[in-house]
Design goal:
The structure holds 2 protein chains of 2 kinds. By secondary structure, chain A is mainly α. Chain A has 12 helices and no strands. Classes of the chains: A mainly alpha, B alpha+beta.
Amino acid sequence: MVMVKRYLTFTGAWIFKNIINILIYPPLFLKKIVFLLCLWPIISMGFTFFTNNFGANPVNEIIHHFGKWTLIFICLTLSISPLRRITKSNSWLLYRKMLGLFVFFYASIHLLSYTGLDHHFDWNIIVEDILEHRYVLVGTAAWILLLPLALTSSQRMKKILKQNWIKLHRLVYVVAILGVLHYLWLVKKDLTQPMIYAIIITILLLFRIKFKKN
Amino acid sequence: MKKIFSSEITPETIYNSRRSFIKKLGFSTGSLILSSSFFLNNSSQAEERNKLTTYKDITTYNNYYEFGTSKEDPSINSKNFTAEPWSIQIEGEVDKPITVSYETMVKDFPIQEKMYRLRCVEGWSMVIPWMGFSLSHLLKKVSIKNTAKFVEFESVYRPKEMIGQKSNILSWPYKEGLRLDEAMHPLTLMATGLYGKKLPNQNGAPLRLVVPWKYGFKSAKAIVKIKLVKKMPVSSWMKAISQEYGFYSNVNPKVSHPRWSQATERRIGDSIFSPRRPTELFNGYGEEVSNLYRGMDLQKYY
């Protein structure tokens, strides 16, 4: 009995230790799995499309779907540094670039569904919309700010830009704030959803200030 | 008065079969539909303009914050709402306040089918075959004093049955208002049903206002009280964000919502490859209602 108990404790500890290890030092192959998981917004939208499960307003549904996923990926990207500090493991950095590029990817689909699907690339209307309505303006600004980040995401650019690369990529903080403002200014009255993102992003940004002080 | 003839309207069954036909053809037809729309003649343009929205879309895509703020919430959360028995109190600047029961109203007033376009302030629209009677019939039941200039509508307050009323997203009960002449206008409808059926709970059962030339939120649902008043009433939306939602809220492509454009609208049920449609002044009912606003600055009185 005592043996069994000791054995169970031992096995339990072993499993627990390994789970912690995988979490803290994720092996490389996990990156491929994470990549596939990152495609979920596309897969789920494809599913909705082919089962025609859109509801009454498909175009809005598509725009909002990719808008929300852009914000989710911004949150994921911003949580890499805090996770790295908390777990004292650098392996999280493995995913940062990929997640960042997914932010750009989903932001682009979001923008494309607004310009293409909703407005049929009618640039007169689109430009007027951008200039006259602050929520469209900050959204567009956020996407434009993502452009240099996506273009300089390679290792080569990182080496060329050196210290400037770090400075440049701090733009993602601005993108995060603009992204949340974009959502906050869009909703009619119920701020619950955008406030959830606002709170998460605020916490993630506060982490940075705390690190600076330390 | 310009009527939408029933011959201009595609019945839901034919409409649906047409839709499934289009769906079967697959995506490639998307562009085909787009290009063919250039060659539509006038009669099919009228048909396009007033093609009925499906019963499913009308009853699952609703703004009815008493039952939650997302579009599908009302259809899910309104199942246990009790719409019977029901009565409306009429009070305020009248000689003698009265209470009229739902049964009296549907028995005494002529119930007509009215196909109206509905334009939401959010930039989407539907065409709905309402059943109902002109509000003027009900208002003529009381003798209105000369001092009455506006009409205030109050929706039901029942937080036990209406989950959205447990939060303070708007001030409850929901209130809306019209100028007396707007309320007496023959287009102003008290709807008791749609598609020949009793009004579903999520659409404002058992009876609601429909003012087709104004944004949808003006058409208060589940009305329990009508008050004739001297001064312009303050609606729930005016109280919430006065700079964005004015008292008149007439559909007007040239007066933007402060945060988004009102120039175009997306018709519910259109293919995802369809363009938005241009929004019409007074939602296309200008011929009937523009005389109500003669000489008025519509930019100022939005």
